[in-house]
Amino acid sequence: MPAMKNKHLSSEEFLKEFYIPDYILVPNGEVKVLSDAPACPTLVFINSKSGGQLGGELLVTYRDVLNQKQVFDLGEDAPDKVLRKLYLTLENLKVRGDELAAKIEKQLRVIVAGGDGTAGWLLGVVSDLKLSHPPPIATVPLGTGNNLPFAFGWGKKNPGTDRESVIKFLEQVLEGKEMEIDSWHILMRMKSTPKQGSCDPIPPLELPHSLHAFNRVSDTDELNVSGYDTFRGGFWNYFSMGMDAQVSYAFHCERKLHPEKFKNQLTNQSTYAKIGCAQGWFAASLFQPSSNIAKLLKVEIMQNHGGWKELEIHHSIRSILCLNLPSFSGGLNPWGTPNPKHNKTGDILTPAYVNDGRLEIVGFKDAWHGLILLAPKGHGIRLAQTHRVRFMFHKGAADCTYMRMDGEPWKQPLPKDEDSETIVEISHHGQVKMLATQNCISKCVNDPPPSHEEYDADEGDNEHGTPSGEEWRKFGAAETFKILEDVDISRIS
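The line above is the sequence of Diacylglycerol kinase; the predicted structure tokens follow.
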């Protein structure tokens, strides 16, 4: 894709580079011959409910600057139906010798505006459709965490919604680079139980969009076990469980009950921090003794030479994170940059790459431990790198745990019987295309290796490494972890 041809184009001439004519968007529409094929034909999907009023405002602006028919409100138009119809139209036009249709299919890009869950939804749809030329996806940060946009250089703050801001974003899309990133398949199997008690099985609509990307397993599937429900899904940024997901779930429920209180990104982040305090995330061992993950499950990873190996989980860990991209909790990198030559764990741990076919597995003790991510070269407890991991939950100290996948949390029931088991298995599942800015933080295996200065200085702090009180004051914390200055912990119940 060429860089912006020149900076002297008028805005009208520039916007023609993104224009898709009606006859391609609407079957049997009026044919309009363009003198030149657009350099960057773009479909835009906007979650009008994201970012308070910003989603709706952004929808109006994009429809004003582009063809209205190439801008979709995700509350009204399902992306899978839109893309199926478009690609079917393109195929039919190509058969009839339409050269413009062939060029648009080859050069098509997608913009999705919303939170991480919305972005994951679009990635899942594009992945499922198995298109011959899948379009790369650019993400507009309209959510609270905005990890996906930040990882690929699109920022983490809500963008402007005026015409000038939209044109500036489109300039970045035109100049962006395509990156292949790993996608991850998740299989969850749990025992079917009567709908009663505080931890009822979750209605399918309450699960994340991305957990339905591959649909529910059929009755004839060999993975189905009598008396169990099995679900499949996918993620691209992270899967986490434990205290951090519990805080996210509480925030999600509060926003669902009182949407009028969540119309501002800064207010949302403040509320998130307060909920973290109320949930006991800053004193997990005191307020949440059942959050001791080691008492709830066994973790196994697939070794490179084959065969499962049990992963030891320290009793202090309250949250486990499986990370694919170098962005979590609003832009932090819990894995850091380990130096393979100085690692003391016995395994060779390498810097994280988004297309190396491996997940980085990190543990956290509590929110105070999370503050170390704000320190230079700070990181969580590095547990493993692997292409496949399995979590096996047994009857333990809690009836439920909390899980989160690409920004979407849910409450997960755990076994109530000694002989039953809930299994979550994650494995590598191909790659998808993202659109990134030239200087994004995500790195591929073929990029230049980190410099000596970028490696973490101390590789011996995997089991400890909690910052001092002075560091807490100095570094603050990420959205998931921090206590804001105006929060009086003693008043939170």
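Note on the example: The mean pLDDT is 77. The CA atoms of residues 249 and 409 lie 5 Å apart.
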